[in-house]
Structure formats: C-alpha cells, structure tokens
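Objective 1b: paired records.
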Amino acid sequence: MILFSDANGTIQANFGTPVYQGSANSNAIYLIAPYAPAASVMVGFQLPDGTAVAPVAMTPLNAVPGVQNAGGTTFAGWSYVLPATVTAKYGTVTAQFFFYAPTGQSANPTSIIATSATSFQIGRGAAAVLPDTPDADVYESILSNLAQLQTDLNGGYYGARAIFPWSNGATYGANEITFYPSIGTYGAFVQSVVAGNTNNAPYVGGAINSAYWKEVVNFNTIAEEYFQQVQAAVAQAESAASEAESSAQAAAGSATQSAGSAAEAAQSAQAAQTSAEAAQVWEERAANFSENAENSKNTASEYVSEAHNAADAAYTAMQSAQSSATEAQGYAEYTKQLVDGLGGVYIPQGSLVFASLPAQPAAQYQGYVWNITDAFTTDSRFLEGAGKSVPAGANVACVLVDGAYKYDVLSGIVDLSNYYTKTEVNNKVSAETSAREQSDENLQKAVNAKYTKPSTGIPESDLSATVQGSLEKADIAYQKPSGGIPKTDLASAVQASLGKADSAYQKPSTGIPKGDLASAVQTSLNKADTALQSIPIATASAVGGVKPTTKTSEMTQSVGVDSNGALWTKEASEGTTVVANPTATGTQDLTSLQVGGTVYNIPQGGAVEYATDEEIDALFEAAEPQDELIGTWVWNSFINSTTNTFNFSFTSNNTQYTGIKVYPEGRGVHVEYLKSNGESDYASTGGPSVYEEYKTIQITDVSSLTNREAFETWLKANATKQ
C-alpha cells in the first residue's frame, strides 16, 4: 500500500492493497513525504485486539524523481514489510509514522514529527493448523541441537556475524551479514550470497565481490549524500544572501530614480505656471503642462512607495538568508560533531540488554556500538534526551558531542531484498495517476452528457418514445367528471342492467309484508297460522300424546310406556283385568275399555291420521343414542404427544378437515389438520399445545376411524368436550 503525507504529518492519501491474515514479509507499506531522504522514519501499529506494536525503523528509498509539493519540495520514500506479528489477527490495523529531526523542519536533532493515524484491513484467513505433537526422540534431538548451538556461540564459532568485522579466517553461511571496515572511510555492511564463504574479500579493487557478497549498507555513500545536502543548504543560503543584496541595491536605485522624478515634477509645474502668466494664447498649453506635471508627481510618489516596499523585501530576504545560513551552519556543525564524535568507524560490541550498558559513556567506549535486545527508555546519558521509548533490537553508539560523551540511538540493519525498488514505486504511482486521470475524464464526460432541464419544464419531444406514447394514451383517456360518471357514459349492457335494477323489488326497511308474497306462499302461511301449535298430554276424555315414564309399584295403570320408549302392561297376577265394553253384550264396536276398576270411553267416528316416513325417521333418530365423540372439543393447554394419524370428519377455524396427523417435534408436539385435497394446515409445530385459532374442533363424523380406541384415549386425555 502507498501512503502520502504532507509536511505537517497529515496523511493525505492511502492507496491500499489486500492484506490477509497469516501473511508474513510479503506485503509492504510505502510512505511518500516531503522530507529529506536521510530522515529517520519509524512506524508503529495498533492491532485489531488493541495490542500496541512499538515503532520500528522504515527503510529509506531516496528521493522520488518528478514528485514535488506546491512549494517545490522533493518527496522521498520509505518502506516497511509487514511481519507475521502485524497480520496475525484479522480486522482493522491502525498505523502512525514518526519523523526524527527531518531536514528543513527543525534544527533540533531530538525533534519528532508524528503523522495522523491511518488504517488498513487485515482480511480474515483460516485458523492456523498446528503440527502433530512430536515424539520424545524429536524433543531430545532439539535439545541436543540447542546445546550444540550454545556451545558454538560460547566458543565464538559465529563470531563473524554482523556484530564483528569481516575476517578472512571465518566461514560465512548464505545471507550472513558482517561489517567490512576496509572500504572507504566509514566501511560497509555486506551479506554473503553463498554458503561456505571463506577467505573471499567482500571488495576487490574498490568494487563489491559480487560472486560472494552483496552490499547492504555503504556508510561512505550515506556520509557523502549527507555532506552534499549540507553543502547544498549552504549554497542555497549564500544564494539567498546574494539575492537580498541585489534587492537592496535595486531598492536604492529606485529611491534615487524617485527623487529625480520628483524634481522633474516640480520643474514641470513651475514651467506651466510661467507659461500661464506669460500669454493667454499659451493658456491651453499651460493647462496641459500642469496636468502632465501632476501625473509626474503621482508617478514619483509611486516610485517612492515601490522603493520602500523593495527595501522592506530586501531586508526580509536578507534576514531569511542569514537564517538559512545559520541553519545550514548548524546542520554542518551537528554533522561534524557526529562524525568527530565517532572517532572513526563504528566498532561493534555485540548484543546485550539495556541494563548491561556501561553506566556512563566515556572515552574508552567512543565509537563502540551495542545491539540492545530489549526495549528501553532513554535517560540523560543519551543524545536524544530522556524519556524516549526505543524498541528492542536498536543499536546504541558512544559518541563525543560538544566535549561530552553521549549514547546515540542508531537505526538497525534491514534486508532490502524484499522491498519495492524506486522504479517499481514510480510505476505504481504512474499507474494510479493514470487511473485517476481516466476517472476524471469519465466523470467530465458524464457531466457534459448530463441533460439540462429547461426553465419552462421538460418538453414532450425530449421524452422517450415509450413515455410519449403513454402521454398520448393519457390525453385520449376517459376523464371522470367531478360529479361522477353519468349513466349515459356507460356501456349499453351496463345501462340495461341499471334499468332492471331501477325496476327491481325494493325490500321495505320493516321487512317484506305478507301481501307482497306469492299466493301459494300466503296460503302456506295461513295453514301455519291454524296448524296445531302443541300436542297435549292424553287423558281419559281427550286425545293427546303419551309421556314416557318408568313403571313403579305405586302406578295403577295396566298399560304404559317406559323411559326407553318400550310398551309395558300390568300382569294379570297383579289383580288388574281389562274388559272391553264392560256393559255391552254381543258383537259390537269397541266403545270403551275397562282396565281394572276404571272404564275408559273410546270416541267413535274420529278421523285417523298417519305419520309420514320423514316424521317416523326423525322419531327413530331422536330415539337412537348419539356417539359420545360427536360434538365440540377444546384442546388443553398442554398436549401429550403420540405418533398416529386419525381419519374422521371435523371443522375448525371455519375449515372442513378429514383427519389429524400427530407426532413429537422438538420438546413439544406436531399437530397437522388434513384436508381432502391432500393439503394440510399446521396447528402446532413443536409447541406445548395447538395455535389459538385451531384450539376448538367440531367433530361431525367418526365412522371412518379405524383406530377408534387409540383416538378416543388420546382425545379424552388432551381435550375437553363442551
């Protein structure tokens, strides 16, 4: 990803690239800012889980050619490859950059400019899969190798690594780094490109021995570039001073010219006055002279004002030149102090913890460099001042500054092989610039093609053909009158229907009177008015109905009907006799009936009426006992589950059903009401009871039940009949 910062530390742009969880040393951050390429830049992170990663040094990439800010300052670049510790967790990572004493920003070598925070996303990856646990033999082999490595370290076997100068008697492995002091004035760090590298000098004839070595950092090049920058600053200051002097001289010349112009103006004014007094004929010419004199006077005043402004500008330029010269001299003196303070080339002293650093920097340690393996905070012994946090792995040198020995924190060594080159960065910047230009061009085309609505509204001709067609249909469409659609606007069939409706019978609000009914209906109603309204109980003197009752010992009747509708008679042994026409003799019609001591008269000549088949069926149906399952049932609040399907007819929620399917579901019960068309409604899907709208069922027919006993047991246990 590429980030751009201004001189105040504000991140102006962030061109991100995808970064995914678990990546290591493959994604780089490039920072472009208007600071000197030699400025030390560090970057710190806050991970998605809130963990803070201490600032680490970024690798300088020198100036970016062709890229300048509005003031003409050249931009430089720095890079940093993201390690696994930064990409271990997915989410938002926040980054902040720190510029240490950037050239042109502060003469104080301990000043720090911190940028605004910026962020990027770590995409989620798969969880790391750990290898299988090794067996005991593997652990024993690991411990043995660690012991051998410790022995080799204690014996100086790896003494030729980066903390000691190169030795022709040492053997270097591939990618090992060492310091070679015998090149130039300040030496260089080099990296072996082959394994088993023995007795091969890193430089031959002043050039890198590329068959065996690769140059990592050449301190001679760094020192030369820094001195060139200092010289350029001094030259710039001298140039500014020269320009200031020229401006002052120009200001003095302008002042002299202004004075001369003022004198000429006075002379012209005097000449004009003399000409006016001399003769009337010269009056017009004198007036012209007077006007010219006034203009000359104004011009002279302008020259004086410009001279003052030029003098002020010259003074300001002179002060700026003096300040630039002083600042350049300060950088030169500071650089000389650092170089002199080293007393020569760095002398690596190995690695140690901060607490083991010599208590006080002294002459015997001048030029010594230690690699501090733990993070620490600077104190009064440091050139940077007290209270600065430094991450683990930093290098600390002992230097002499202003007659006092101090510790100075140096940046560590970074392998640049995995970093983008300057050309690659330029290509990426160029590609991004082209993409933005194309986007701007496309946007401009879109703006140019944008339709401008006329002030009087969009005319119909500017609309699409489809919209115009719809508008034409709307123009010829029927417009409903404000008072409603008149009958004459309706279709003839609709008008005919409305005519029939107008002549149709209108039911009175109090109901249809008898006189409006058909004659047959009126006749039926008349019969209903005179029909038998109720059947009286039969007595000895009147015909009527028989009320069933249970026979008891107190009853004296010889004939009766019990509560089940069965006819019973009194046995002869009970002392009751039945005699027909007890007072008559011979053959004759039955006119009376004697039961025991009671004589019942039987009326003669009465009409005989017979019941219809429907009336007889109704009597039998009323006499038959009803199935106890038929009727209204309401499900209980909790239903015991079973697994079965019951086929019978019932209604619920105004719907006719042909059966119930039930089985356990989850912690509750599944109840499904089945329909004749194969569809069904869910009355419960795992709840303790059925839904409220299906809670009442009306059973109408159970003749199709093939498992009646199971259904009857389950129904009575889970529902209540109303």
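Objective 1b, second protein:
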Amino acid sequence: MPPPKDDRDTPAPESPTRVAAPAISDDDSSADDTHVFQASVARKAAAPKPAVAPATVRHEKTASAASPGPQSSTRLMPPEPAARPREAATIREAPPGVVPIPPPAPSLSVSLVRAPLDDQGFGARYLPQGVLGEGGMGLIGLCKDVRIGREVAMKMLRKEAAKSDEARMRFEREARVQGQLEHPSIVPIYDLGVRPEGTPFFTMKRLHGETLSEIMDALQKGSQSAAAAYSRRKLLTAFSSVCLAVAFANARGVLHRDLKPSNVMLGSYGEVYLLDWGLAKLTGAADDDGRVVPQSAQHQTQVGEVMGTPGYMSPEQLRGEIDQLDGRTDVYSLGVLLFELLTLEPLHERKGLDTIYNSTLGKRDARITERAFAKGLPPELVAIVVKATALETRDRYATARDLHDAIERFLDGHRDSKQREEMAAQHAATALEASQLAATVPHMRELAMREVSAALALDPSHAGAVETLMRLMLDAPVEIGDEARQEFKQSRRNTERESRRGTLVSYLLWMCFVPIVLSLGVRDRLAAALTGGSVILAALLSWLSSRRILGGPTRFIVYCLGTLAIASTCTLMGWAIVVPGLAAVHTVGFIVYGEKRLQPAALVLGALSVVLPFVLQEAGVLPRAYVFQGDKMTVLPLMTSLPALRTQLYLVLASLAAIVVPAVVISRLRETLEAAEERAFMHAWTLQHLLPGRAREAAAALRTPAKEPRPPAAEKGKKA
C-alpha cells in the first residue's frame, strides 16, 4: 500500500519528498540578502574582467531528518549542461528582478597572502565574489576567505527564514552534522557563525567536478569522451569510495537517506564526494569520542514520516517505518545506485509514483537478474546488486563496508565460486520447471533455454543444466516458432526450385523419344498428337515454373499433363509395356517433390494411367492392344507400326530411361537427406564441444542408455 502522507505537496518521482518553499518576489524582504550580497560584488566589478561561465550550485529545499520543515543542502560544481529533470528543486538562477553576477574563474595556482590574524570582523574576512545559487530559505555565495586566501562556498539563511527558531535550528544542525563527519569524501565545513545583520551562515569547501547523474547522462547518450574518461572500473572504484563514506557516517550514527547519482560528485583528480546531508537521520546515543549524536533540543523524526527520493528509498523507508531504519537502509539505496550505474537505466521504472512504490515494495517484479544479464553484466556484480537491494533488510549486506568489500573483491579479480554455483542452481531449477511445461505451453521453451544458458554461463559444468539443455535439444518443440517457420519455408522453396529443374530435364528427355516414335511410322495421328502435345506442353510449363513466371498449382497441372501423355502411350504397345514404368517414375517424382496435400491425388492418377486403358479396352471403348493365342501374346499397335530394328531400339532406350531416371531421382533425394543429417550431426557435435569436459561427459551419459548390471556367477547357478 502507498506510504502514509502528510499535508505537504506530493513529490516528483525522482525528487526527494519536500515542503514547498515560499515564493520570492521583488518586494520580499528575503530577497534583500541577494541584493546586499551582490551589491558588494558590484562595487568590486568596475574593472573589466574576462567573461567566464558561472559555476553551478544545486540548492535543494529538503525536509530535515529532525523536523518536517524545509532545509537546504548545497552542491557546487563547475559549468555544466542543463541538468536532467530528475532534480525538481534544482535552482540555477536568481529570483525575478535579480541578475546574478558570475563568479570569477577559480585560480589554479597557490599564492601567499598577507592578512592580519586578529579578528577584523565578518566583512573584512569574507569578500563576496558572486552568487552560486539560491532557494526559498537560503542563499549560496562564493566568497574569498582573505585570512587564508582561498575561495569558499558560503551558505546563508535568509532574513525571513532566520526569524523562525525551527529554521535556525535545522540550519545549524545541518552544518554540525556535516561538519562532524570528517571524511575525505564528505564536504568539510570551515566556519559556522552569524552575519552582522543577524542571519546564520556556514562556509564549506568549494567543489569542482561532475555528478554521477551528469556522467550517466553523457554515457547514455553515447558520448565517446565520457566513455573514455569513465570506464566501468573507474566508476566502480568511485562507488566503492562512496560506500566507505556511507559506512563512516553509519558507524557514527548518521543515515544519509537520500543516496542517488546526483548526490555523488567526481573530481578531475580522483576526488569523490557524497553530497546533500539535509535528510540525514541521527540514530546514535551520547558518546565521549566526538561522534555525531542527537541533541536533546532537537525534534527527532517521528514514525510515519517519509523522506527521501522515490525510486532510491528502501522499502522500509518508503513505508514510513522510521524506527526500523539502520545502515541497511543506506545499503539498499547504494544497491539501486549501483544498478543504475552499471546499466544506465533506473532499477524501478519511473512511470509514476504508484509504479515506483509497487516496484520498491516488491509488488511488481523489477527483473533485476534478467535485465542485468541482458546488459552483459558479470554474474558477480549481478549477485551484489541482488543482495544489496533485497526486499527484507536481513537479506542485504549488514553494512555499507560489506558492500564495499564485495566490490573490491570483484575489482581484485576474485570469483566467488560458491555464489556462482548457487545462482547456477537457481537458474537450472527454473529451466527444469519451464522445460517440463514446454510440451503444453510453447513460450516456456524459450524461458527454459534462457535460464539454462544463464546457468551454464555461471557454472559450465552444472550437471542439471546440461541435462536440461540436452533434453531441450533432443525433444522437438510442439509448435514451431514464427522465425523457424519462415526459415523452413525458405528451405522448402529452395528444394522446390531444384525439383522444378529436375522435372524440366525429365520432360526434355521424354521429348527426345518423340522422333524415335515418329520414325516407327504413324498410323493414328490423333493418338500421336495427343501424346506428343501433352509432353511438349508439360515441358513448356515446367520451364515457365522453373523461371518463376508461373506459380500456384502449376506443378500439379504439369503432372496431370504427364499422366495424360503416359496414358495415351498405351496406343503404342498397350497398357502393359512401357506405360507402367513411365507411370511409376512419374508418380514417385511428384510424391518426392510435389505438394503434400496433392500426393493422394497424384497416386490415384498414376494408377489410373495404367488401369483406365485396360478397363476401356476390356469394355470395347478402345481397340484391344493384345491378342492371346495359346501361350503367345500378340501386340496390336494403334499409334504406329512396329518395324523390328527401330522398335527394339525404342524398347532398349525406354528401358534404360526407366532405370536411369528413378536412380537419379532417388540419388538426389538421398543427397538431400544426407546433407540434412550431416547438418544435424554437426550442430550436435558443435553443441557438445561447446561444453567443457565434465559437462561433455554428462551429455554423453545422457545419450548412452544405462546397462543393467549382470548377476554374479553364483546367482546364475542358482537360477539355472
């Protein structure tokens, strides 16, 4: 269910939950701070200076961990392109009517300054240099610390906001929490005090660099310079440093609660900074070692308040279980950040708050493993992300230090073989279940293949995965897929093209017999014209079909014409001589290469080419072809005469054709079958040799049937 809400505005899906900040207008007294700060800069800007791009400061109005009111946090960066819409509260310009003065370019050299060390007052020590950014409650300015000679970022509370004790307390709390976290990856606080007009301020280090959010934007857009500057190893090293900073804060009783790419900055010289501690929650107790601890005067966050950025908050944080938060809450956010860093896409789809809530709370599968493997991530990193983003806190890394150590083990090249085996077993089990359902649910076969591939990628010698793979390879699918069906149809078209050419050659060979038959001496011109015309027309249609000029049922029409020519040949030497051999060859050719649905019709026509002339002759419709006298059979030709020499030559050639043509047809068929068998064998051999030794042995064992053990000799004797 959605987390409890208060009367504040609903946040954008990618922005921390915040309280709406008051608007700034020209007549608002809170805007006087901007004018006063800029006026002092304008007095120093008389001399012309080279134009420089202003540094960017992200100033966010956030809800403090100590109270429901707004609190400011600051991030200072060099000039950058427009930020992503992820940070709804990012302010890059002054209020209406106020033109910010660009700060000067930072000095790249160290210089010695001469300044008195005694207290000369606020105005003498901090010289305004420009406005970096501002929001409804505070202002960020660039100042020159004259005493030390360095540029610092100064955060100031506006006059109107400073009238509220609550706002002053939150402002001071932020400075003290961040200031006491003395770590190389946490922005140091230099000074905390009150300006002459009575508003509080604190100064901190000015940062130069790019946030992970900007780096990921560039990588997602395919920037070659970003890809060259930020390799996966470099980004993982920076992430490891962030884990240490979080572990440092957690060990001192501080939870960040707003970890995301825009709150991590990388410098040009290897610096890594964790920004924006405005939502930090204090969980420790009083201690004497100088740790950050809650003060009795502070208003602690009450159970049920939700603070953080949807999409990065942990499930318990999103449910408002504030009393259940510990270091594992930050571990979850780090896991989400790691997934986005590796895949360049959010873990929880940003299609509205409901989608993010359901995905975070486990009501909608985020498909971490499937999406990560699709991006080609190593299984070790996938396992790290899965463990860090576990729904239950007990299943995550106990501390951010443990997450850091896991990343370091990966960077050091260590492989957790046990973890790989466990993940392989999970994928193999899923593949086995899917393969058992593949017979009734066709798409489960694809799932089984995908899962068994993942299992073998993790553990190539996993026996269960190999067995499932062999079963999938040996058991034919119930329903052929669309892609396979198209390939099969293309193969059939190629085979049919070859068969058309063979048919054309057969009819051309048949036409060679026409002159021989005519040389016998034609008696019945109608019978000769019917036979010769059918053969010539069939050969012509075969040629047109082979050239793809004609399509459709052309093959069957050609077969019918050939059958007619064969049946009419009975007028030469009767239905029992030559005709059966021609009919057999003709029918077998169509059965092999013709359409399957027309094969029964072809078989019937082939039989009729012999039977029908016999029936018609017996019925007296056609003249008899044979006369039987005693043990002699006399042939009575109708179409031609039968001269001795030429008739024998015709019979010899017809017999040779009856031998050669079927042999050629069957030979071509055998070559086709052997080629298909060879391809299948090579596929199986290639698949087998893709597997390593142990997996290959397991596959061979599957193909070899188990032999029953022979009974001992003694038992044989007893049975005898």
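The CA atoms of residues 209 and 647 lie 102 Å apart. The chain has four domains: 1-16+210-284+306-415, 18-108+118-208, 417-474, 496-673.
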